């Protein structure tokens, strides 16, 4: 009985911890439409882990890429993806769509 109770207690604790950790991340929505990011400028809190939900509303794939933030993710047309960003120091972090780099550009401002 004790090992089962211990296992259940650990499983419950892990579930609560994971739920708490997921809820602690501020989430930001970014759309890709007509090969542009909307919004193109995003203000976020500094020094906390972030979650970006990027929805590609175009029919063609796009890549959300940022050398400044160390992120590279292809998002198929009509799909969305969750991207987790490490805590950022205050500053400006450029991002772009590698497949449409001339129009798909943006900046994250960590404050």
Can you give a write-up of this model?
- The chain has 111 residues and is α+β, with helices and mostly antiparallel strands.
- It has one domain: Sandwich (Immunoglobulin-like).
- It contains 1 helix and 9 strands.
- The chain has one helix at residues 2-24, and strands at 27-33, 36-38, 41-44, 50-56, 62-66, 71-75, 80-85, 91-97, 105-110.
- Strand 5 (62-66) and strand 6 form a beta hairpin.
- Keywords: Signal.
- Residues 10-110 form the EfeO-type cupredoxin-like domain.
- Its main location: periplasm.
- Residues 1-23 form the signal peptide.
Short summary of the structure?
This protein is of the alpha+beta class and 111 residues long. It is built from one helix and nine strands; from the N terminus they run H-E-E-E-E-E-E-E-E-E.
What is the spatial order of strands in the main beta sheet?
3-9-8-5-6
Q: What is the fold-level CATH name, i.e. the topology?
A: Immunoglobulin-like
Distance N to C terminus = 51 Å
The biggest sheet, with number of strands, parallel, antiparallel or mixed sense and barrel status, is: 5 strands, mixed
**Total beta strands:** 9
- Helical proportion? 10-25%
- Category by helix and strand content: alpha+beta
Please tally the helical runs, counting DSSP H or I stretches of 4 or more residues: 1
Shape: globular
Regarding CATH, which class? Mainly Beta
GO cellular component, one term: periplasmic space
Keywords: Signal
Domain EfeO-type cupredoxin-like: 10-110
Signal peptide: 1-23
């Amino acid at each position: 009985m004790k090992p089962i109770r211990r296992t259940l207690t650990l499983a419950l604790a892990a579930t609560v911890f994971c739920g708490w950790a997921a809820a602690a991340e501020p989430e930001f929505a970014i759309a890709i439409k007509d090969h542009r990011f909307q919004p193109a400028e995003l203000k976020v809190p500094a020094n906390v882990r972030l979650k970006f939900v990027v929805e590609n509303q175009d029919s063609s794939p796009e890549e959300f890429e940022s050398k400044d933030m160390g992120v590279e993710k292809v998002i198929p047309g009509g799909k969305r993806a969750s991207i987790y960003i490490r805590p950022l120091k205050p500053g400006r972090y450029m991002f772009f769509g590698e497949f449409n780099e001339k129009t798909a550009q943006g900046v994250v401002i960590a404050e």
